[in-house]
Amino acid sequence: MKIAHISDLHLNTLFNDSNLLRVKRLIKYVSAQSVDHLIISGDLTDNADESDLLLLKRMLNKYGFSTHLNLTVIPGNHDIFGGPQKPIEIFSFPDRCKEVDYDAKVNLFKEIFKETFLNTITADSESNFPFIKEIDNVIILGINSIAEYSKYKNPFASNGEVKLKHFNKIDQLLKKYSEKDVFKIVAIHHHFNKMKNTKRSISGLWQNIEKQTMKLKKKKRLLSLFQKHNVDIVLHGHIHYNEFYERKGIAFLNAGASTVGYTGKSLRVNIINILQNTLHCEMHKLTESGEVKIEDFFRKEYQINLRLSPIL
Fold first, then answer.
1. Whether the predicted pLDDT of 204 surpasses 70
2. C-beta neighbour count of 300 within 10 angstroms
3. Which of 43, 101, 125, 209 is deepest in the core (most CB within 10 A)?
4. Global pTM exceeds 0.85
5. Which domains does the chain have, with CATH numbers?
6. In angstroms, what CA-CA distances link 6 with 106, 145, 254, 304?
């Protein structure tokens, strides 16, 4: 099975038309790679605009990503709360977040991409998240990590948190596969590692504030749950650079710089190949000149039926 992973597209046709062409070029490239499934791990839009979500959906449909079998989408904080578009909006943004109907936004996201949520497995009939998709010998666990607005705990709506009631649901869902030889993939928006300093300076007051507030709460508890159920890889975004890292023996892949970030003007997509007992990940960089550079992220081989025994 061949999976493409992108994130943080930040489509915003009202304030940043130029990014539309970059997103189109990226999705066209992904389609040309003949992937079986595309995962987008949040921040599809920059300003939580319904018209941008609908535009992206049409674009994805055009290039063959339209059903639960070939597309998985997870909301990001920008898809629920948006973001300040002008420097002057930085100080009024918390008040704007306070007025957001969180549940309505999550439901709108699911309604727009309803075809991708068909035939998913949930813990109960009323839940949108978490969910599991079964595709061949792969399961994809989708988790909503967007925390609700809080004046003190989440004043800029960029922190992440998985609700306590969802931990039991994740446990229930993964237990169904404890005796099955399947690759287990988690799709979530927020990261599990520390933000690193980059040579490129973070410009603006807003970015400096975000750097201090882009944290995932209860991530140690999530890690323990992933470890308990032998999750193979976690795909996320949120921080705007591409990176592979490991925590507690679990592989993590960040695609947060697909069209924006600290990576210059190249477009980026992670390509994950799952073949028998091998998991192999590459990063494809598309330069402005049309050149494609491919970088190996990691390769792991697994003993069949022994999910705890990776061969490094």
1. no
2. 15
3. 43
4. yes
5. 2-311 (3.60.21.10)
6. 20, 17, 9, 29
